[in-house]
Amino acid sequence: AKKAEAKKTEAKKVEAEAKKVEAEAKKVEAEAKKVEAETKKVETKKAKKADTKKAKADKKAKILAKKPLTKK
Predict the structure, then answer these.
(1) CA–CA separation, 67 vs 9, rounded Å?
(2) What's the angle, vertex CA 56, arms to CA 44 and CA 46, rounded to 5?
(3) Alpha-carbon span 34 to 40, nearest angstrom
(4) How distant is the alpha carbon of residue 31 from its chain centre?
(5) Distance separating alpha carbons of residues 64 and 72, to the nearest angstrom
(6) Distance (Å, rounded) from C-alpha 6 to C-alpha 10?
(7) How many domains would you assign to the chain?
(8) What confidence tens digit (pLDDT) does each residue in 6-54 have?
(9) Is residue 72 part of a domain?
């Protein structure tokens, strides 16, 4: 009977450990998701900036294209 008790306690310990590890894994996963979201935010900002620059360049190019190239 004592051996069975010991095994039960051992099983409970292992279970508790497993739960701890699982919780830790979830924490890490949440952290990773946060970092990913942050990265996406930064990338979106960069993309927006690049788009703005491109739009400005396109505008300039259009204006220059409208002007006659030959100056008299």
Answers:
(1) 87
(2) 15
(3) 10
(4) 9
(5) 16
(6) 6
(7) 1
(8) 899 999 999 999 999 999 999 999 999 999 999 999 999 999 999 999 9
(9) no
